[in-house]
Write a structure and sequence with these properties.
mainly alpha; 17 helices; globular
Length: 423
């Protein structure tokens, strides 16, 4: 497990290094307003793409043989094609209503992100960690390089949007086509029935988790304008980079290890989850302290005076970011333990708490106040989530212990490329 994690971390580190290093340049090529529009577009695209295959791609590591995996791939491709078609109709209406033609790129963004997710889970099933690492570099690092090139050509919002789409296509090519998807209607329908918990439980979970990001950007843009939305997007892009790097690598290795034990939680799996939580907490603590101390001055120095508000926001969000760092890889735990109904219930509560805290903070004192409100509210949520995972009963039913007692439970999720986690 350690060797696989290190392989993914190496690729992820390079993939994250390029966007982070180019960020100060990008903020001088594009004004905050352009970033605000881009982050809204990216949030909507991710919101749709995360459920474009009805989450059936996450069943690939659980497939018992190649015939079942091929049926799942066929099912995913059919669903993705339908969602891309619907998003094209929505994008056309949105572009006509808003007079912003760049919305027409929405189906391309949804399609490429959906293919990256399918190809990534297919590579995870095959334990192709070197391919996954290389694809991350192409997708994230390539997007930043292409955005910089577009900025030199003064491409504006369109450049920020098209560059990540091209990079995602390159990542799909690096991962390789997901493989044979030859399956009869009876075969892919049987696969759909066998793994119906993914669309029934994980799909609304993932969609609502992504919807949180979309609502946050939309709420800030409506309250304070697109420049404030750009500051929020920039701050979270940098603050969540460690969680994206570490969380993605750990979750892609942790998921098949837990899934191999079958449904429910065994003693070894619970110990593995507890050790993972403790290690991540040790890594997160200095990150939180550094943000409290350095964030305002560091953001103003790195990105310029137009982005000073992003530094104050980063300090306010430090505690939330540290907790998210720990939670990010754990989104796969409830999937592996067949506790998705349990996970969905608390995720809904957590997302409601997040949006309510954000709205209250905006009304109270602007962007920084919203950050402090989110950190305080989500600390309570994450604390309960970690405690439940650490004490999960052995040989639990697939529904999970909290459901039987009427309690609400945590959510699992994924990021743009990602497994949805408690937000």
């Amino acid at each position: 497990m350690l060797r696989a994690i290190l392989t993914l971390l190496a690729g992820g580190a390079l993939a994250q290094a390029l966007p982070l290093l180019l960020g100060p340049w990008l903020t001088r090529l594009y004004p905050p307003e352009d970033f605000g529009h881009y982050h809204l577009f990216a949030a909507v695209a991710a919101n749709i793409a995360v459920v474009a295959c009805a989450r059936y791609e996450f069943a690939l590591p659980l497939a018992v043989d190649e015939a079942e995996a091929s049926a799942l791939r066929a099912l995913c491709l059919r669903l993705l094609a339908g969602v891309v078609g619907l998003s094209a109709l929505a994008a056309l209406g949105w572009a006509l209503h808003s007079a912003q033609a760049w919305w027409l790129w929405l189906p391309a963004a949804v399609g490429t992100l959906g293919l990256v997710s399918l190809a990534s889970l297919n590579a995870t099933r095959a334990q192709g960690f070197h391919r996954l690492a290389g694809a991350r570099v192409l997708q994230h690092g390539g997007a930043a390089l292409a955005q910089a090139a577009a900025g030199l050509w003064q491409a504006g919002v369109l450049g920020l949007i098209v560059a990540p789409i091209a990079a995602a296509l390159a990542a799909v090519l690096a991962l390789g086509w997901p493989g044979p998807a030859r399956a009869s209607r009876a075969q892919w329908r049987a696969a759909a029935r066998a793994h119906r918990s993914f669309p029934l439980l994980n799909t609304p979970h993932a969609f609502l988790g992504a919807l949180q990001d979309t609502l946050a950007i939309a709420l800030i843009a409506a309250s304070l304008g697109p420049a404030a939305a750009g500051a929020w997007g920039l701050a979270l892009r940098y603050l969540k980079a460690p969680a994206t790097l570490v969380g993605g690598a750990v979750s892609q290795v942790l998921y098949p290890r837990l899934a191999a034990a079958g449904a429910g939680c065994d003693a070894a799996g619970r110990r593995l989850v507890l050790r993972t939580m403790l290690l991540l907490a040790l890594l997160a603590a200095p990150l939180v302290a550094a943000l409290w101390w350095l964030a305002p001055a560091l953001f103003a120095w790195a990105f310029g005076p137009d982005w000073a508000t992003a530094g104050e926001l980063a300090r306010a969000l430090a505690l939330y970011v540290g907790l998210h760092f720990v939670a990010s890889p754990l989104g796969v735990v409830t999937m592996a333990w067949q506790a998705q109904a349990w996970a969905l219930k608390l995720a809904l509560v957590g997302q409601g708490v997040f949006v309510a805290a954000l709205a209250a903070g905006l009304a109270w004192g602007g962007l920084a106040a919203a950050g402090w409100a989110v950190s305080g509210a989500m600390a309570l949520y994450f604390g309960w989530y970690f405690a439940r995972l650490a004490t999960w009963p052995l040989a639990a039913s697939p529904v999970g212990p909290a459901l039987a007692g009427g309690a609400l439970a945590p959510g699992a999720g994924a990021g743009p490329s990602a497994l949805r986690v408690p937000r």
